[in-house]
Amino acid sequence: MGGQKGGMVNEAGQFPQVCIKSLQAMVSDLQDAIPAACWSEHAIADLQSWTSHTLEHSGRLVQPLLLRPGATHFQPIAWTEALDRIVAKLRVTPPPETFWYFSGRSSNEASFLLQLFARLYGSNHVNNVSYYCHQASGVGLTSVTGSGTATLSLDDLQHADVVFVIGGNPASNHPRLMHVLMHIRQHGGQVVVINPVIETGLVNFSSPGEWRSLLFGTEIASLYLQPDIGGDLALLTGIAKRIDEIGASDEAFLNDHCSGWPELRAQLRHLSWSELCARSGVPQEQIHRAAQVYAAGRKVVFAWTMGITHHRHGVENVQAIANLALMRGMVGRPHAGLLPIRGHSNVQGMGSIGVTPKLKDAVIERLESHFGLSLPTAPGLDTLACLEAAQDGRMRVAFCLGGNLYGASPDSAFTRDALAQLDLLVHLSTKLNTGHVHGLARETLVLPVLARDEEPQPTTQESMFNYVRLSDGGPARHAGPRSEVQVIATLAADVLRDAKQPFDWQAMADTGRIREAIAAVIPGFGKMATIDATREEFHVQGRLFHTPHFATADGRARLHVHDLPALGGGNGAFRLMTVRSEGQFNTVVYEERDLYRGVVGRDVILLHPEDMREHGLAANQRVTVRSPTGSLSGIRVIPFESIKAGNALMYYPEANVLVGRDVDPQSHPPAYKNVLITLDPSAVQCLSSS
Ligand SMILES: Nc1nc2c(c(=O)[nH]1)N[C@H]1C(S)=C(S)[C@@H](COP(=O)(O)OP(=O)(O)OC[C@H]3O[C@@H](n4cnc5c(=O)[nH]c(N)nc54)[C@H](O)[C@@H]3O)O[C@H]1N2
Ligand SMILES: Nc1nc2c(c(=O)[nH]1)N[C@H]1C(S)=C(S)[C@@H](COP(=O)(O)OP(=O)(O)OC[C@H]3O[C@@H](n4cnc5c(=O)[nH]c(N)nc54)[C@H](O)[C@@H]3O)O[C@H]1N2
Ligand SMILES: [Mo]
What we know:
The protein is α/β, with parallel strands linked by helices and 690 residues long.
């Protein structure tokens, strides 16, 4: 209990497990201020030639920065001038022509306040990074259990005897999960990995925290399945078919607690093994083995990340995972369940407290009854749709609470163009990033804010296990940056000064007041009202399913039947995944080296040696990579045994030049992991002769 230690101790109260990346991020928050002379010395064109690493390490932002229309340099300005400019612009802009984008790092308090401000101002175009991340998990899970988050607690995961790890690279991206997986293997449990790439860290992992593992490494995967990119839906359906064939399904559970079993069973029996193998890229014998491991498990957890959600059929992928779990009654009991492994520290909390284009009906009702608010009714747009509206000239102002909207978005050329159509783009940020210098509007403002551990008042976040954590904040390292909550409250008070307001916006700069409001309006957050006094962190009510009673209308979990998509590619085209390296946090690249994959440099494409032979490509040869969306020249070909032939790997965010804007129709994330590309070696000649 007690949140003093913030994120350093996990929610089971265990020993500190600080991962390298959070250390790197903290160290970069500790930096000196960017010297004031920087802004006159370096033109925007100059800053555009800096890498994300240089920008991140140039120091902490301490002054508001303004880039006027047509200006060549950022100009430091006073806080009052910066806020006045925003207020003046918002007061003359039709509210539906503004959008409000939230990265997943800010507190529940700042996020709740900003979304409320945006709506009372008159815009429902409120969205968070999950439209580029886990939205398919939220939509998929809601369609199954009636609730959009993990069905289990950290304690449940720690007691599992089989864990499926699907579409993720946790050794780099979720090091804390690696400790749980190590523990499970050391206690006789099994880990089944599904990934087109054999990720070294999932084969054998060395933990700096454990001498035995550090010396010898711990075997992680007991079974490793390598589907083609996009082959998961067919693979998961194949495992389900086998579970039915060997009579390992829990018929009583399916009949008593689920709907849709007769339809799913009929489909499973109808599908042919040849089709399942062709559409997954996995041999039948391996699918059988996975089913066997699953059938032998008594407490099974299914965990997944971006290899599942970054597809045109992301929601269907998630539903197929849930089908499989439900077939053996692994949802709605302790020590088993469904676990979308989250990215940002608070991306889940943001969804909970209302950073979504459409508020839940229960939240609207409570906001109206509790505060007497009237909310805008025009439908809000998701992130990419806001950018498309901007490109069409239907957006005037964008306000970004953290993040790097430019770097994170698909189709970089389009995104740059869309942002350029805006009259005003406002960023709240701790450090410079590529978005601040490449994604420019007619006028761009960057406001320096405090990091979360410098907040003057306590704030909360929600973990992927639905656990609300409290942190006390701490002393600010620099004069200049302001608290996000304070900036938002000041803006709201001024922009809405003539409107009759249900509460005093300036008083809402008190995070305790915001927590009271959250407790009153957000379902499951009742304990937020007393957390300041009790310091009792808590599980959001109604999220954990330890009994088979679900949050759907009829209390049953729903199974889903899908058409299996054909794999793209062939005829000289590759399926390309765009992924993170080790030593990177999202659009910020800390290191050039991708440790576990053994690659140095980022201007690379990783191909299976068989594909290189077939296409007559040599190691380190430079090629042009083309997709229907864009092309990148001078890319080095790297032979990579660990990827399944026919598939290719490049690093995000650079590869966003190639990623198209076609999204999953149900949840809207772009298919960042499935871009069809071709390689053009002839372009090398031009390059080397130039
Ligand atoms: N150090 C560090 N930690 C992070 C982040 C970071 O950038 N750095 N980012 C955070 C965020 S926001 C997120 S969302 C998470 C991301 O965590 P991950 O999802 O692990 O990250 P990615 O690198 O996008 O994902 C790539 C994994 O998906 C696999 N994959 C690609 N296509 C497919 C497919 O079709 N099927 C399957 N089964 N697998 C596929 C790739 O081989 C790779 O192992 O990490 C979070 N944690
Ligand atoms: N091609 C491709 N594109 C992708 C992905 C992919 O796998 N492939 N992954 C997608 C996913 S899963 C995600 S989540 C997005 C993430 O994309 P990003 O928007 O890059 O993610 P963030 O980590 O939120 O943003 C990083 C920025 O947040 C700012 N920041 C850091 N700490 C703080 C803080 O304490 N307060 C404030 N206000 N700002 C801070 C820093 O300036 C930093 O530059 O990218 C998506 N884009
Ligand atoms: Mo993410």
